[in-house]
Hints:
By secondary structure, this protein is α+β, with helices and mostly antiparallel strands. It has one domain (2-165): endopeptidase domain like (from Nostoc punctiforme) (endopeptidase fold (from Nostoc punctiforme)). Helices cover 35% and strands 22% of the residues. Residues 13-20 and 22-31 have low confidence and may be disordered.
Amino acid sequence: MPMRRYALFILMLLMVILSSCSSRRKTIKPGTATASRVADAMSQLKSRSLYRFITDWTGVQYKLGGLDKRGIDCSGFALLLQKDIYGNTLPRRSRDQAEVIRKKNPGQLKEGDLIFFSFGGGAVDHVGVYLNNSYFVHASTTRGVIVDDLNLPVYQKAMVKAGSINN
Length: 167
């Protein structure tokens, strides 16, 4: 009996730790960011390695706690992108990632900056990576890894913080 309680405790603890992206509701319909505008944003990336990283991951399905091509969550995607492209180390959860950035106004964002959202009302529960011209890449719970328009009302309402990683 004590082993069963221990296993239940560990399971509950894992669910809490990995829940940083799980409270996000379905927020927008596929195709709201036009393909030509997304292609334009991608073509204007300064970093070719960032371009390759995004195209390599685009369409990978969302999986809470995932960290590979079989499925990835938003904070895992931001963590891998920052590590592979910029050599930055980030915490695993989006709310912890939000604590290690130098805050900027949205108009000051540069390629590679992080954008944090609260779709559940309150704590940070989603993260994306800014590209340019108000476009960002993220692991959507409904559409997987995708480039989206930050100007969409759903993102404007939910954005709570943005900025560069403190080095």
